[in-house]
Specification:
- There is one protein chain.
- The chain is an alpha/beta fold and about 425 residues long.
- It is built from 17 helices and 14 strands.
- The strands form three sheets. A six-stranded parallel sheet has the order 1-12-11-10-13-14, sandwiched between helices. A four-stranded parallel sheet has the order 3-2-4-5, with helices on both faces.
- α9 links the parallel β8 and β9.
- It starts with 16 loop residues before the first strand and ends with a helix.
- Bound molecules: iron/sulfur cluster.
Length: about 425
């Protein structure tokens, strides 16, 4: 094994998993529009949904109301839901009005919701029809952000997979390149691009900043997942012949090193060059983490299933910040994509998949953790009970990837504990 790869246990399948299929408390996939619309700058997201969907988007958007937003909700009225009006005619009318008002739109995502799924509104048919009437200037893509049996990060997965639908594989003679997959804040993406350039690795990022600046994807593509919740997108890339590079996720110094090392190995970068490029940033991150570790080491953390970032975060909290893992919950356990992460968890960890929220709350209260990572719906009641919480949704809204943001990520966990300590004085 080259010396830039972190040592790990080799049998991740050995970790037992508690599977629960009860009531769960999560946001729906529409939430992903909040970060996707900032990333894909020529796209518009039109949710075909209810007033509840519109409220969710408005409250999640919060601070962005001053800009002209690139998302909206076409509200299904009672007549649509009862089948009295033709919802497809309504969609056509709304889209025509929208495009007349916003001529800069190049890609329009038709986003399904719970109500559109319940009435079986076929948005892929609507996208096809609208492509004929408004294409090629505007492209139409559909995906579902419904909250039926999904969790909020799956909205991004469904969106990215929808962009790959209809893409043909690049010929095997196309030049070899790296594809980084998963939405990253622009400064994080720019930082990674500089690192890959220094390593001499040709790189593209997906999603691109303009929806149809899609790189060629085929047998010459090696891809690295930047987010752990992209099961459907990964399968779409596999179908195009791309090859996934197994790696931990780039959270913390250790995860970032392992992630970059997977690319370096695949592209034949020498160990010396790797150290030259990666070493200084890694050491800076380790030094910054050492200070934060003092306040977190030995603290006991309980992670509820919410963002699907839980397993990589647990690895980071345990190995780099010395926290004790009580329970690590995840909505879905994608063992293949998480193999490198699972191999780095302590063998004593309690892993749970899915949720039965009342039972999990009982386990949490009994364990008396120092910190709970959970969704907004659980945070307030737990705080009232004197349990310190961290909202997991903040982890997807904050730049936390890479060496440069390792300390920012750690601070997200130390801040609630500091706040609670100050309140006690
Ligand atoms: S998609 Fe479903 S869960 Fe999400 S806001 Fe709309 S109705 Fe609620």
């Amino acid at each position: 094994m080259p010396d830039h790869v972190a040592p790990a246990r080799t049998i991740p399948d050995a970790l037992p998993v508690l599977r629960e299929r009860g009531q769960h408390e999560v946001f729906c996939g529409l939430t992903g529009i909040m970060w996707l619309h900032r990333k894909i700058q020529d796209a518009f997201f039109l949710v075909i949904g209810s007033r509840t969907c519109a409220h969710l988007l408005q409250s999640a958007a919060g601070v962005m109301i001053f800009a002209e937003p690139r998302f909206a909700t076409a509200i299904l009225e009672e007549g649509d839901l009862a089948g009295l009006a033709d919802a497809h005619d309504e969609i056509d009318r709304v889209v025509t009005r929208l495009l007349a008002r916003r001529p800069e739109i190049r890609t329009l995502f038709l986003v399904g919701s719970c109500p559109s799924e319940v009435i079986k509104l076929d948005l892929s048919r609507a996208a096809e029809r609208l492509s004929k009437s408004h294409g090629p200037a505007v492209r139409f893509v559909s995906y579902s952000g419904s909250g039926l049996e999904t969790t909020f990060t799956q909205g991004e997965d469904a969106c990215l997979a929808s962009l790959l639908r209809g893409v043909s594989p690049a010929p095997s003679t196309a030049p070899t390149s790296l594809l980084v997959v998963g939405t990253l804040a622009d400064p994080v993406e720019d930082g990674f691009r500089r690192t890959f350039d220094a390593l001499g690795i040709p790189v593209h990022f997906f999603p691109p900043r303009r929806a149809w600046d899609l790189p060629e994807v085929g047998p010459g593509t090696a891809y690295l997942l930047a987010q752990p919740y992209l099961a459907e997108t990964g399968s779409a890339l596999d179908r195009l012949g791309a090859r996934r590079l197994p790696a931990p996720f780039p959270f913390g110094a250790e995860g970032t090193r392992g992630w970059l090392a997977a690319a370096a190995q695949a592209f034949g970068v020498s160990a010396a060059r790797f150290e030259e490029v990666v070493g200084p940033a890694e050491r800076r991150a380790q030094a910054a983490l050492a200070k934060i570790r003092e306040g977190l080491a030995g603290k006991r953390v309980f992670l509820f299933p919410d963002s699907q970032l839980e397993i990589p975060l647990a690895r980071f909290l345990h190995r780099e910040l010395g926290m004790e893992l009580l329970e690590v919950g995840t909505p879905y356990l994608q063992r293949e994509h998480l193999a490198a992460e699972l191999a780095m968890l302590p063998s004593s960890v309690v892993l749970s998949e899915g949720q039965d929220v009342e039972r999990q709350l009982d386990r949490c209260r009994a364990a008396r953790p120092d910190l709970v990572v959970c969704g907004l719906g659980l945070a307030n009641p737990l705080e009232v009970e004197g349990i310190t919480t961290k909202w997991s949704i903040e982890l997807v809204f904050t730049p936390v990837h890479g060496f440069e943001h390792a300390a920012d990520l750690a601070n997200l966990f130390s801040r609630p504990l500091l706040r609670r300590a100050r309140l006690k004085v």
